[in-house]
Design a protein that fits this description.
This protein has 322 residues and is of the alpha/beta class. It is built from 11 helices and 14 strands. It has helices at 14-26, 41-51, 53-56, 101-118, 131-142, 154-169, 206-209, 212-223, 225-233, 240-254, 299-319, and strands at 6-10, 31-36, 61-66, 82-85, 123-126, 149-151, 176-177, 180-182, 188-190, 196-199, 202-205, 259-268, 274-285, 288-293. The chain binds nicotinamide-adenine-dinucleotide. Nicotinamide-adenine-dinucleotide binds at residues 10-16, 35-38, 67, 86-91, 100, 104, 107, 110-111, 127-129, 131, 152-153, 156, 184, 236-239, 242.
Amino acid sequence: MARNGKVTVVGAGFYGSTTAQRLAEYDVFETVVLTDILEGKPEGLALDLNQSRPIEGFETKVIGQTTGLDGSGYEAIAGSDVVVITAGLPRKPGMSRMDLIETNAKIVRQVAENVTQHAPDAVVIVVSNPLDEMTALTQLATGFDRSRVLGQAGMLDTARFTNFVAEELGVDVASVTTLTLGSHGDTMVPVPSQSSVEIDGTRRPLSEALPADMVDELVTRTRNGGAEVVALLKTGSAYYAPSAAAARMARAVITDSGEVMPVCAWVDGEYGIAGVYLGVQAEIGRGGVRRVVETDLTENERSALREAAEAVRAKQADVADL
Ligand SMILES: NC(=O)c1ccc[n+]([C@@H]2O[C@H](COP(=O)([O-])OP(=O)(O)OC[C@H]3O[C@@H](n4cnc5c(N)ncnc54)[C@H](O)[C@@H]3O)[C@@H](O)[C@H]2O)c1
């Protein structure tokens, strides 16, 4: 099997290490680089992951590299085709993602500046929170074309919505299609009108499969999906589903798949919204976002998306100074 390309995952915490594992196990990349500022942690995880290769049966090589705040060690990411930024603090119970903005902005800016220097041709996938703002900050700090900087949130939020619907109906997740747009926060926009379920070979709108109050309940649970996990874990935030989403995005880039995914992308006129990073569906390929794909929305969903855009626009303007 032909493997190609190099993907770097910055941050070897829960999100980063599981992302590196998934990327390595895909066996489509030549190299996965995992970095962190914690001395020895990325090297140790890389050694461990490489030792899983004979068992799992993949050949992708994992390289661990400690980096310094002065940028030392960043030579290891040279030539990366994709960089996934997971560096930053996760939430604790009771915190909103926005509570992380000042701390994580400093971390993400430092990482972004080193990515600019050492991997100037990479597509950058941001996952650090607050997601929409950290994606905007990464684009500002790197100066990369906006199509080459995107964020992961919508795939995760959509997967959560799908899982809740499937569990409620007692059907396979594969028979359920849902969608969430908007921000990765309070102004998330789950889109029931584009959600459906296949029952006995017939695809039905979600509104026919579940009563309206149950759809509302699942929408609310989806919007609070991250906080629900944080409250249970108490010491960190979710990483299995989040890493699955980021890894799929990185794979779509390296394989130039053209898959349409809900991601945080630069919106320039779509839905009558412009000049902001927002959760929308986009076609993903080798250069990052090929195009934003608009979908039919109800008037309510459309105005919720506009509200989300205005909410994140204000915050994204602030990150320039953080
Ligand atoms: N977008 C999403 O859907 C989503 C979902 C879950 C978590 N997150 C976010 O992802 C981030 C990581 O979460 P986690 O669970 O892996 O946290 P974690 O605490 O387990 O790991 C974060 C890692 O970042 C490292 N780090 C800190 N500063 C760094 C720097 N300057 N350079 C390199 N590495 C640095 C830390 O040493 C740590 O190992 C958090 O901000 C979290 O909120 C986003």
